[in-house]
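BUG: 3D viewer hangs when loading the predicted structure for this chain

Environment: internal workstation, default settings.
Expected: structure renders.
Actual: progress bar stalls at 90%.

Input used:
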Amino acid sequence: MIETTVAIKTRDGQMSTWIVRPDEPGSFPLVIYWMDALGVREELRDMCRRIASVGYTVYLPNLFYRDGGPSFDPALLASGRQDPKMVELNDSLSTAMTVSDCAALLAHANHNPAVRMPAAVVGYCMGGRHAIAAAAAYPKEIKALASIHGGRLVSDSDNSPHRLIAHIQAEAYFAWAQDDPSASATHAKVVEDALLANGLPYRLEWHLGALHGFTFPERYCYHKTAAERVWSRLFSLFCRNLDTHPSIRK
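Structure tokens produced before the viewer hung:
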């Protein structure tokens, strides 16, 4: 792998973004990885490496750059506690902010010789709603969307993420944990109705026996069987919708 960290200029400052791609010449389809509320950490980098290993250039932006880019200890969640600062940052990070950030990411990617379009966005937990917002804001560029145990996708607000589905032109995959207080069956029905109304190709999948955060290998709730099923779904989604034919530079 070739790994770099760059500072991408946004409307609100410099966003640290970790980039990984295959260690070979050529350009590769872009995947933007939207982090969970615990922030950027080696666990996420390893997940991005797995995506890159099968032929993608992956951008992992630190969405908390406005507040110094902190990360938080996953062990807290096992005890049923949450860091108050993490909760504050999660609450304050709006989809309007990350849509603006995505514009900067796409502008950078368009000048990166290791990237070719179209792109995919995949968001975990908090990142699910930001992936939806990005796909809605940039439908020409983003042709695959995945929300993995995404939380707060449905609310009564006019800015509820589920309302943005009407503007998406990407195939979508939603992975839901069986036991997830932040993503109920009622919310899943609202999301599915929005997908059907928009006529999008999609898969909405319940992972039985799984808890919120089940795909993270270092989290107490890791569910290997469900997590591997998600990886299979993601790679199939990317393959169907991105230009995966090798583009080699000589």
